[in-house]
Amino acid sequence: MSQKTIYLIIGLIVTAVLGVILLQLDMIRTGMEVNEQRYDEAVQDALKNAARELEQQEASEINLQTNGFNSSESNINLGPGKFTRDIQRSKLLGNNGILIPEPYSYRLRLENQYNNKDLVERVDRSSLEKKLQNEIENANLEGALEYGVYDNRKKEFIIRNGRRLSEIGADTSRHLDLLHSNFRVSLFAGEVDTPGYLMAYSPQKKTVIFNSIWYNLVASLLFVGIILGCFIYTIYVILFQKKLSEMKTDFINNMTHEFKTPIATISLATDSIVSPRVSGDPEKVKRFANIIKQENKRMNDQVEKVLQMAKLDKSKLNLNLTAVDLNDVVTDAAVYISLQVEPRGGSVETKLQAEPAIVEGDMTHLSSLVNNLLDNANKYSPDAPKIIVSTRNVSKGVEVTVTDHGLGMTREARKNIFDRFYRVHTGDRHDVKGFGLGLSYVKTITEAHNGTINVKSELGKGSSFIVTFPYRQD
């Protein structure tokens, strides 16, 4: 898959995910607006019903007093003087001077009396409290609801949450939450001048509305999170597979090159041996036979490395645990690598400070591990390698450090050097050979021995590989 195709897929998936997120956010916003509107309507209806209850309660009192007055006063002779005072609210029914009060006339007087009362006397606080509570419960309104009665004539609050306010407590500056609220209805609205308002304020309104849609929000976030997680994982797998494919391609190219050279050498040596000019000379035959043997051993070593990693892949690694002296292992490995370093004008120095240096491990694998580190230090060093190998005792084990003054590595390279088939980019240098399996093998063997491996490196200044092995295995 090409880089362009990968970027196109990433772009399409990102666009789709962003579209889903935006749609979900819009749906959540719409849901909150609808729930807020329903909440506002429910609170407003509760206030209207409570105000209507007060008006009906007062009207019932007036009706009761009017009916009582009609039954007791309908046959009384009020006399001329009374007629003079009540001429505006009475009706003459006969010529004998007897006046009968008109029911509507008395009702008007009662209504005027109620209208002239202070608002605080007209509002039954207990009835208002009970009615509001019932309305709130019936409307399923969650959260506390603050309410108050505002006297429009006195320009102050007279009741707050069923409690009559004192002169100081009635100050509107103490009730700005109610004063600025949109929840309000007129009390006794049928009169010419509205005597007051019933107001309410919900301090938990936003919380209540959010709680009504939180499960939708959580579900949306969960599903979007799953989509994002799958998307990120998919992209990771694509990029990883692409990287792995590139490393395997490099591995095949390197392996082909590594095998091509000895095969060509063996072919030339074989042709030389069968040549009549060489076949009759035992010394030349022996010389070319040794070349064939060395190149064959070189190919066998390369194949062995690949087979070792294949065994590790299939978890077929069986450690033959014995007592291993790491000082001896380091000394033997240093002697071997010196044969390659010294012809290049380099040097290998050992600092064996560990005492004791004996650990429980597999002799073969530990030797291969140290040889791989030294071979790596040699390959990534300039023309005159300077390699230092040291051992020292640490808590519960022995530490082996291989330091070179070679090319060094970037931070990105340090993250990937233990990946299989990965090889550090060497710029214009093309003489660094290998399959990219050495450090992966080193890490695998270290972990198989319950050890740890760390790397310190700076580009252009060299690298240090620190491997620690415990004295005993579990």
UniProtKB/TrEMBL annotation:
Positions of the Histidine kinase domain: 254-473
GO molecular function: phosphorelay sensor kinase activity
The organism of origin for this protein: Neolewinella agarilytica
Record's keyword terms, sorted: Coiled coil, Kinase, Membrane, Phosphoprotein, Transferase, Transmembrane, Transmembrane helix, Two-component regulatory system
InterPro entries xrefs: HATPase_C_sf (IPR036890), HATPase_dom (IPR003594), His_kinase_dom (IPR005467), HisK_dim/P_dom (IPR003661), HisK_dim/P_sf (IPR036097), Sensor_HK_Regulatory (IPR050736), Sig_transdc_His_kin-like_C (IPR004358)
Tagged with keyword Transmembrane: yes
Catalysis performed (reactions): ATP + protein L-histidine = ADP + protein N-phospho-L-histidine
Membrane-crossing residue ranges in chain numbering: 6-25, 213-239
Coiled coil stretches, renumbered: 40-67
EC number of this enzyme: 2.7.13.3
Protein name: histidine kinase
Origin: domain of life: Bacteria
Enzyme class per UniProt: transferase
One Pfam family in the UniProt entry: HisKA
Keyword Amino-acid biosynthesis annotated: no
Record-linked SMART domains: HATPase_c, HisKA
